[in-house]
């Protein structure tokens, strides 16, 4: 038997204002995207913004449905829209913001497993790391690559 350890590293900021200008812009887009969420059941609004290699930022928000689980998370809404509209552009980074009733929470909303796997798929497709920002009013977490939030990503196909 051989024992292994997985090391995850990330940066923590106290606010969006501490981010570099590019990350600050993406975080602000994710916060703005929260306003278009359709969340009549959970009342938890999530916004996401994806920066593409062509410089374009694509937004998405969570879209709930009475026929659960027919809705879709903000992250996948943004990534699928980006891939559909700009299939040749790589996804360089994604920012996620969320909170109750459309107000930014004090702690970051973290992506579900399905969203993490979709992020991993687009990272593998591009062959480049995709950074992730998890944005809250009292804290912003930055991960340099999807592997840091989904170790041992599935990429066998």
Could you explain how this protein is built, in words?
The protein is α+β, with helices and mostly antiparallel strands and 157 residues long. It has a single domain, classed as Cytidine Deaminase, domain 2, CATH 3.40.140.10. Helices cover 25% and strands 23% of the residues. The chain has 3 helices and 6 strands. The protein has helices spanning 21-33, 74-85, 113-126; strands at residues 11-13, 44-52, 57-61, 91-100, 131-135, 140-143.
Summarize the structure.
This protein has about 160 residues and is an alpha+beta fold.
Write out key terms for the chains shown.
6 strands; six-stranded mixed β-sheet; 157 residues; 3 helices; Cytidine Deaminase, domain 2; single chain; alpha+beta
Order of helices and strands: EHEEHEHEE
Task: Please give the alpha-carbon distance between the first and last residues.
Answer: 27 Å
Q: Could you give the order of strands across the largest sheet?
A: 1-6-5-4-2-3
Shape: globular
* Total number of strands: 6
CATH topology title? Cytidine Deaminase, domain 2
Helix content: 10-25%
CATH superfamily: Cytidine Deaminase, domain 2
- Based on secondary structure, the structural category is alpha+beta
Overall radius of gyration: 15 Å
Number of helices: 3
Averaging pLDDT over every residue, what do you get? 96
Into which percentage range does the β-strand content fall? 15-25%
Low-confidence stretches: none
Main sheet record: 6 strands, mixed
CATH C-level category: Alpha Beta
Tell me the domain tally: 1
Reported CATH architecture = 3-Layer(aba) Sandwich
């Amino acid at each position: 038997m051989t024992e292994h350890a997985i090391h995850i590293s990330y940066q923590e900021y106290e606010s969006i204002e501490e981010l570099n200008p590019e990350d600050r812009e993406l975080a602000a887009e994710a916060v703005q995207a929260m306003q278009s969420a359709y969340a009549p059941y959970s009342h938890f609004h999530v916004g996401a913004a994806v920066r593409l290699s062509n410089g374009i930022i694509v937004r998405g928000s969570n879209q709930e449905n009475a026929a659960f689980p027919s809705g879709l998370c903000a992250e996948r809404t943004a990534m699928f829209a980006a891939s559909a509209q700009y299939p040749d552009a790589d996804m360089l980074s994604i920012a996620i913001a969320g909170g109750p009733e459309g107000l930014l929470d004090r702690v970051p909303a973290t992506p579900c497993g399905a969203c993490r796997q979709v992020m991993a798929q687009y990272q593998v497709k591009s062959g480049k790391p995709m950074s992730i920002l998890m944005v809250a009013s009292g804290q912003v977490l930055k991960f340099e690559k999807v592997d840091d939030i989904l170790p041992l990503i599935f990429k066998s196909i």
